[in-house]
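Anyone up for a design puzzle?
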């Protein structure tokens, strides 16, 4: 068993200055006003008006903490643990929602586009430069996004084409890290306004021969006339990764036969991605108070890999297996919907969408020898003949409708249904497997106490959804299609705001069937269904605006993920895992942070994240102890410029966080 660890211990120093054409007053107001979200309902609503666990991380907060990665952005989010890196390279991450750490179980959305389409979230290609906010929904979104949003949604929203801020930045840091970025407002063409952002980043790691470099550009243009808007977005991402090696587990603990930072990949190993997305849409006032929105998005990406893994923790010949693979992916997404949100007590929404993905891969495998001490770099000739292939074609169709009824000033009910029709084919001569299923949700939120902006509200919801099983283009996979995953969940909680204090507490229970888990076929990764599992727990978060510009946040979560019915073969012995904890799911998660962010002068931030003990294997014989990470940052603002230094994982915690 191979495990990825917390690998990074970095200091990032701003080598240049940041010029921002935006007043400090606007930044302060952005923190005080209740943030809006659209991921749960498509209607902009304050998070405390939604009967679900949802939070919004603002651009002001991201800037105050010097955020550059998804892990850093969500480090103080309630109930979420982000494992950096993973099998998709050091630029990627593996999020955990509700105690479930499965790479494709959540949905990543960027500017209303499912980022990764009907296959797997394209986390490695996510760029957090020039972001306006990040919306986080815990639990599925079975009506608005259906079969792709299984246990949570992360929605990254970039600044609009009409935003007037201009900025330039440069940074440098340890392990050869550095980069530069710029955001410009282009000259208008008629009534069209445009904004372009470009950045280059290189991030180095403590692991030998591990780094990534990214070049990214984002163009947004829009024609806005009153309530009517026509827009176009183009995004290009060029990513070059030198992957790390996961650390082998030997019995109940990580192996001591291999050094912590060793890299067993062949010389010049790589994970390279070129990704281009073009999106367009329009928003129009329709009849009466109705608003009609439509959009379409096209994505083309190329992924090339040359890498290897230890398969034998000995110095024997051919103790490692590698592969070379090229994957061509095409994604198409289209959505159209109408929302009636007038002065009445009712709000209605109805719409339809389509999500199409087609991927073809060719590759070859090879065996090679890797010294366990990691001092010698294995030299392996790249295969020139690629006899293995994998193919997957998916189409997800959905028709959905929802309604919200404000029964009284303090009571509202929501409900929605979605008809999902999915089709999937693997291999040219294989039949298409179809699924036609309903998903939906109901919820309510009740105000027990209201006084101006202050309130105490309780909420509850039930959500049911399904998702076709993951496909990751593993060369060892057969062309059979796994059973679809299904889930049903209940959630209830409290939302409280009084003066400077903002709190949310929730409890959840989710039954999960046909969870997709990793397995090994012929020394290569493959996937399998895992019977029934259950996830339940409680999650708490509190924000406190202290005196002046000092802001504090603390979170705690208790997650209990267990197998309910899952029989698995271990070395020829069929074992029932019922009652065992799901691997890598910690019972306890906690975080705390302080941010001091005045408009000018000295500023600082500090954060800690605690992850409780968790089992590294399904039989629960390998228990990994708890660990804590610490981040610190300090800066100085000169009006429109800032210089800052940020340190991540300053305790150099090197703990297993995800499975390979």
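Challenge accepted. My sequence:
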């Amino acid at each position: 068993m191979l495990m990825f660890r917390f690998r990074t211990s970095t200091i990032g120093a701003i080598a240049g200055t940041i010029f921002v054409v935006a007043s400090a007053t606007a930044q302060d107001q952005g923190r005080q006003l209740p943030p809006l979200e659209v991921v749960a309902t498509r209607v902009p609503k304050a998070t405390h008006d939604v009967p679900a666990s949802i939070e919004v991380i603002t651009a002001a907060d991201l800037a105050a903490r010097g955020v550059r990665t998804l892990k850093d952005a969500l480090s103080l989010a309630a109930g979420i643990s982000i494992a950096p890196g993973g099998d998709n390279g050091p630029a990627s991450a593996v999020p955990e929602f509700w105690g479930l750490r499965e790479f494709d179980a959540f949905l990543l959305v960027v500017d209303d586009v499912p980022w990764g389409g009907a296959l797997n979230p394209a986390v490695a290609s996510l760029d957090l430069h020039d972001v306006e906010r990040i919306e986080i929904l815990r639990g599925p979104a079975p009506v608005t996004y259906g079969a792709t949003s299984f246990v949570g949604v992360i929605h990254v929203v970039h600044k609009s084409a009409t935003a007037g801020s201009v900025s330039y930045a440069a940074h440098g840091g340890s392990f050869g890290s550095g980069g530069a970025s710029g955001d410009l407002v282009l000259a208008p063409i008629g009534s069209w306004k445009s904004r372009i952002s470009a950045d280059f980043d290189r991030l180095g790691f403590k692991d030998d021969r591990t780094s990534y470099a990214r070049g990214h550009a984002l163009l947004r243009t829009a024609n806005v006339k009153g309530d009517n808007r026509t827009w176009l977005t183009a995004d290009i991402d060029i990513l070059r990764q030198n992957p790390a090696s996961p650390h082998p587990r030997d019995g109940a603990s990580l192996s001591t036969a291999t050094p912590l930072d060793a890299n067993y990949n062949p010389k010049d190993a790589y994970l390279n991605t070129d990704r281009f997305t073009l999106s367009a849409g329009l928003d129009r006032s329709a009849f009466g108070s109705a608003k009609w929105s439509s959009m379409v998005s096209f994505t083309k990406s190329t992924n090339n890999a040359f890498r290897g893994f230890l398969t034998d923790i000995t110095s024997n010949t051919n103790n490692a297996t590698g592969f070379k693979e090229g994957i061509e992916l095409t994604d198409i997404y289209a959505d159209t919907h109408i929302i009636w949100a007038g002065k009445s007590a009712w709000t209605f929404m109805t719409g339809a969408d389509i999500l199409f993905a087609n991927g073809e891969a060719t590759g070859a495998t090879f065996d090679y020898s890797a010294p366990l001490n990691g001092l010698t770099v294995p030299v392996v000739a790249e295969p020139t003949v690629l006899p293995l292939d994998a193919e997957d074609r998916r189409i997800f169709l959905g028709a959905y409708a929802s309604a919200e009824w404000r029964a009284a000033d303090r009571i509202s009910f929501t409900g929605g249904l979605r008809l999902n029709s999915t089709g999937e084919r693997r291999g040219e001569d294989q039949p298409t497997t179809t699924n036609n299923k309903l998903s939906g949700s109901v919820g309510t939120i009740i105000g027990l106490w209201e006084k101006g902006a202050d309130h105490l509200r309780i909420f509850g919801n039930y959500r049911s959804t399904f998702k076709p099983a993951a496909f990751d283009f593993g060369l060892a996979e057969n062309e059979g299609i796994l059973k679809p995953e299904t889930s049903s969940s209940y959630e209830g909680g409290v939302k409280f705001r009084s003066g400077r204090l903002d709190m949310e507490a929730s409890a959840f229970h989710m039954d999960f069937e046909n969870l997709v888990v990793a397995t090994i076929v012929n020394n290569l990764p493959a996937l399998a269904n895992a019977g029934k599992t259950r996830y339940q727990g409680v999650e708490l978060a509190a924000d406190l605006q202290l005196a002046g510009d000092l802001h504090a946040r603390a979170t705690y979560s208790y997650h209990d993920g267990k197998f309910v019915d899952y029989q698995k073969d271990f070395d020829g012995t069929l074992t029932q895992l019922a009652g065992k904890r799901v691997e890598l799911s910690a019972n306890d998660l906690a975080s705390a942070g302080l941010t001091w962010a005045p408009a000018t002068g000295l500023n600082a931030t500090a954060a800690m994240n605690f992850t409780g003990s968790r089992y590294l294997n399904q039989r629960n014989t390998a228990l990994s102890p708890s660990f804590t990470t610490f981040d610190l940052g300090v800066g100085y603002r000169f009006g429109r410029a800032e210089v800052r230094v940020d340190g991540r994982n300053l305790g150099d915690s090197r703990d297993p966080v995800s499975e390979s």
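A detail worth pointing out: The chain has three helices and 41 strands.
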